[in-house]
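Subject: mismatched residue count in predicted assembly?

I count 890 residues in my input, but I want to confirm that the predicted structure covers every chain. Input:
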Amino acid sequence: MEQIGVILLAGLTNGSVYGLVGLSISLIYGTNRVINFAQGEFVMLGVMSAILFMVTCALPLLPAIAAVLGVVLVAALALEFGVYQPLLRRGAPPLTIMIGTLAAAIIATGAALLVWGPLQLYVPNVLPLEAMRVGPLITNPQQIAIIVVFAALLALTWFLLYRTRFGLCIRATGVNARVALLMGIRSRRIVRFGFLFSALISGIVGLLVGPLLGGQVGMGVTLTVKGFMAAILGGLGSPFAAAAGGVLIALVEALVAGYGSSLYAEPIIFALILMILFFRPYGLLGDFEAGRH
Amino acid sequence: MNRIHALGTGIWQIPLLILLAGLVVPHLLSSGFHLRLASIVCIYTILCVGFNLLYGYAGQISMGQQGFFALGAYAYALLTQAGWPFYAALPASLLVCAGVTLVIGVPLLRLRSHYLAMASLCFGLIFAGVASRWIDVTGGTAGMMVPSLKVAGHLVSRTELYYGLVVIAVAVLLLQNFIVGTHLGRVLYSLRGDETAAESLGVNVTAYKLRVFVLSSVLAGLAGVGFALVSRQVNPSFGEFPILVTILTVSVVGGLGTRYGALLGAIVVVLAPQGLTAFGDLETLLYGVCLLLFLLFMPHGLSGFLRALCLRLFRPAAAKPAPRLKVSP
Amino acid sequence: MNAMVSENSAVSDVILDIQGASKHFGGLVAVNDVSFQVGAGHVFGLIGPNGAGKSTLFNLVTGVLSPSAGEIGFDRRPMSRAPLHTRSALGMARTFQIVRVFPGLSVLENVMMGFHPRLVDGILPSLLRIAHVLRTERALRQRARELLAFVGLEGRADEPVEHLPHGQLRLLEIARALASEPRLLLLDEPAAGLNDGETRHLGTLIQQLNRSGLTVLLVEHNIDFMMGLCHRIAVLDHGCKIAEGTPREIQRDDKVIEAYLGRRASHA
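Triage response: the counts match. Full output below for your records.
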């Protein structure tokens, strides 16, 4: 009982991280049909700049957090104006833009390498990591914070998408960008919102997850891939399906690691996703997009 | 200049020149290190011709080519370890690649664009994961040694291996030119567009997607065997993300959907870092910047740029800005 | 023209046989139990008001959709389960209502795509017959130029297909369809979006093709165009066939007049 509790909690924590990256990827995909290969790099920048501002510059907590989120938002604008817009202007198809975001990811890693070097760095804790008991479960404040933030960001995204006029515009763009444009929806603003909001989410993830994963400039790719898998598994068409996909992946991962060998967790998950894609090409919850094809 | 005028002609002339140049190269090189670089150019050419046929021409993206690259290398290493001679182990490794592609290709190719990209990336990651973790068979992260190549009792030297790779790379270019220059090329082009239209004209779209996918992974496997022989070892890094980045960079820099983009890109991507090592830590950053700049300013790669340059120099009247080949579907 | 129509109107040799074809989409019945036969050597027209099910029926015949019930026979062969890509080899060729060409290829290369069913299929078989493949390439190019000349596009053979205006793309599609040497040519609203001159040119082309023995089935909005061209016409309304006969019979048919005029009256 105790073991399964620990496993499920660990799964839920990682799932929150994967889920939020998946949600970010799906949000951007929803606004402009581009898969952002640099999403994990936002998390990496969040983690690394937390080290910079909290340890190297020794800023107080709140200004440090603001500075971290500032870095991530600037990176998002750089991605939009340096990669997405120029490629779009030149009529590049979505897959080429995806390769462009991959280039951006390499640039981000390369730049981070110059600043922080290739070594794994210690990341300061925003919250204590001591074990504590919540009912029958053993956990720590960091885990709880991640899960709570996951839930809060999901709720915020839901509110934005379904309870605001702007959210209606985003969803309309997601269903049919051309029609939305004809209806007077300014898609460039929506695309910018997609980049900024998803970068913000990833930056917050970076702040929280640093102490668990450690800080290393190459960590972005793994997170991007996990986020993709989450989005593909759940269904790229809906941010919430993507988040659910992330939780599912992490739970399976934790269960395989807990009861089998952690060595095989990744291959098993990828194989599982591959199999699911064969039966449901648009993801487990992907009817939304499938209907459009 | 129209694609048509290049059809039929030009299938073998330029590859012949490349062959001659490739055979001369070792006489101009001073060190074994440079020979290794020249060999790697051949290997990347083989690998990226496959990717070019699949994505540049047929518009089907696979981000799992590094998986097949590693699969070919591992299959060859394991078979050699089991005592198979070269001439049996090589075709068997390629058959393994073809077999695996057939098995995963049927369901995989039902997916399109991003989904196909991600699912094939999944395959690549599974393979890299298994290769580094199934220690009993693959040697884990340390990998396996690949013995020096012996053909009919003769120990093949590095220079001879290089000659072999040049010949194979040129043969692969010839194969590509034959495909692209005939009806097969038009059929590949039709796959990227309207599938219903292609089917109505009698093209078995599913079968052709599978065929070109198999061909590209066999070429990736062939390149993998070559890399294993040149490196004298295999390890999980063969199937990891940097190889995929290399494939994409070679293809974009050289020019997707062009005949000699893979070769040009391979030359640049192999040689440029030699200059970049002076930059040390800057290397990764510059790699990314180059990839982005090429996407932005040379969407047809060096190949397209050189062609435009030739047109302007030799046929000023015909130099209309009408680039016809799109970078991707 | 009309004299020829009455002579041929007795169906001698059926090439396309549609028996009780139906197509449902969920609860919607798009085509309801339609039967007719197209005789070899005829120009057969399919007309009907908007939403009558013409396009769906056409898609059943071409194989883009498979019928919910009924059978479609081509050349005495049941076709409703035959995969789309096998049909051109059997002698069916089509054009599309919204033109579908292959961007990135030239006009000539687009026509050459039509040769596909008669060429060596597959990469390995092509490699095994390299000499043959390379040799036929030149002959195919010549043949494609002839086809383009036939439809009047010889001057644009080497241009990117993206440069052609709509009317010429229609003609290109016909040339491409002819490249497979079909026995039945299926035209989906070929006159849609053409101006008067282009429509006349199209009518002449179809008549020329028919005179050389080609059977044509066409779906069309433009009734005047159809009356002068077709040997027989079937009329669809609300998914059902309400009439079939020679153009003159159709023009006098009460149900047809009601379907068209009734609707027109209600629209006015």
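Strands of chain B lie at 144-145, 150-151, 154-155, 233-234. Marking this ticket as 'not a bug'.
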